[in-house]
Amino acid sequence: MLSTNSTSFLLNKPPTSLCIQSDIKTCKTIKDLVQFHALTIKNGRIQDPIVAAEILRFSALSARGNLEYARLVFNQMKMPNCFSYNTIIRAYSESKNESLEALIIYDQMLYDEFVEPNRFTYPSVLKACVKIKGIEEGKQVHGQIVKCGVELDSDDFVVSNLVRMYAVCGVMDDARRLFENYVVGDGELVSEGNVVLWNVLIDGYVRIAEFESARKLFDIMPQRSVVSWNGMIAGYAQNGFFKEAIEIFREMQMRNECLNYVTLVSVLPAISRLGALELGKWVHVYAERNDIKLDDVLGSALIDMYSKCGSIEKALQLFETLPYKNVVTWNAIIGGLAMHGRAKDALDFFSSMKQSGVKPSDVSYIAVLTACSHAGLVDEGRYYFEQMVRIVGLKPRIEHYGCMVDLFSRAGLLEEAEKLILRMPTKPDDVIWKALLSACRVHGHIEMGQRAAKHLIKLAPHDSGCYVALSNMYASLGNWVSVAETRLKMKELNIKKVPGCSWIEIDGTINEFVVEDDSHPRAHEINLMLEEMANKLRMAGYKPDTTHVLLNVDEEDKESALNHHSEKIAIAFGLISTGPKTQLQIVKNLRICGDCHASVKLISKIYDRRIIVRDRSRFHHFENGFCSCMDYW
DNA sequence: ATTTCCTATT
């Protein structure tokens, strides 16, 4: 750009005057502060404890501060006052990895006969204990608080940090006891408007995934802040309770509760996972209309939402508009492209990322390897794996091995996949064996399939996945005796197959269907549509591929079973609920089966609809009889 | 003069 030159010229001009800061309030940068500091040393004002404390505070806590400088200032104080101790302790407790230093200075403070820790000291000291995960240190500090004799243990800030310390360390019994002693006096609930204390305890239950206790407290708490709502949403979302997260979010809107930036960032992953595009769009519009800052963090969450909800183009558009992109933003778009099977674009973005100076993380490589695996780019996958290990020096995680096993297995390089599993340094998990097993089924390699299944059963004896995959493999070979044996074994061990489940969002409502589902209010119309679809498919010359049906029953029954796979029901519902040519978007919990894949291709042509299906591992864009995955999946 | 809770990517 032409204008860049003139701008940088202006920026590079040296400052015309060196104005010495004479008041700390006018200091903007650490340089200003150093000048001011020098001045106070020269004129002796540094001896004034208040001036010294202010200098310390600026260097330790202001946004442009510098902890090293603060430490030097602190070390030069002959008699640091309580305020100075508190300031430096707080700065260290909030530091990235020097929190232990906060405890060391606190210890120093205890030995200093001229100062006593006060109610401003302990929140930071406790925060430092949490940071270093020091429950023993925390208990000691708790004792010191109780013993100090000035009733610090009835200060809101001290108590909520104590409860937080126990809660974050997972000692919920102690956290609860403290909370009850403080909040409930004489068996009566005392409401002091102390929402934070409630939030902290709820957060503790959420952390150990005790959602019943968390929800109970949330429901009865006398007052809720936006943080209470956000905590529940984030907790549900991070633990896989996506519907619950969205329900709470909806309830917030219904009650006209104030939403903020954190609310949106917390609910978006849940929206992404469910593929609720309409709701996701609403969040985007809400942020724009309410001046919620669309920065790299919220931007990354939105990019992930658009790509997981099928709108990879919208994700790309948004990506271009973000002025600042961090490594997560790049990972989101590269992972999105990979999911949509756009391997070349994913690799191009990966190189732009490096070019723009953002260092790839291990997650970036997961995205890149996923892209290779979905497109069958075996050599490229090998190349990037080697690059990651040998050049970038990242230690491969089990997920990276998973991608490589997947890459080899799908490409039919089963021996190489198995070799890698046997020589990888970490113990292969069930995901890895499952990747190999399902490839063995596709490529009809029964001996290796049985070997993989054996490992799988050992690793996850009560997971239905391996039995289903095994029985699938036998079924596709027509070995019904072995299918029956496998099924019997499942029955004996009381292992239930995870039911196939698909959902489709219509007018902002998520409609969920399981196999052979007829519980929907419009079930009758849906069934009529399913019949019509089957007829039209047959007229188009389609022959159902019944090897995907596990039962040894009549061909006719098998066909009927196929027709009632959850994704077909969802599509039928989509067809009757939307106008002609409207694009349909389906999300499925498992991988789409071969028969559904083949028939949805035709359905997209017969009904002239774009149909986007997100299955467990990737996106399929069906249009005019073809699928974007080019049948490689 | 100071202090607490909730934040994205596979």
Automatic annotation (TrEMBL):
Pfam family name, one: PPR
GO BP terms in the entry: RNA modification
PPR repeat residues: 118-152, 194-224, 225-259, 326-360
Keywords, alphabetical: Repeat
GO MF annotation terms: RNA binding; zinc ion binding
Segments forming a coiled coil: none
Domain DYW: 541-633
Keyword Lyase: no
InterPro entries registered for this protein in UniProt: DYW_dom (IPR032867), E_motif (IPR046848), PPR_At4g14850-like_plant (IPR046960), PPR_rpt (IPR002885), TPR-like_helical_dom_sf (IPR011990)
Matching NCBIfam families: PPR
This protein's name: Pentatricopeptide repeat-containing protein
Provenance organism: Thalictrum thalictroides
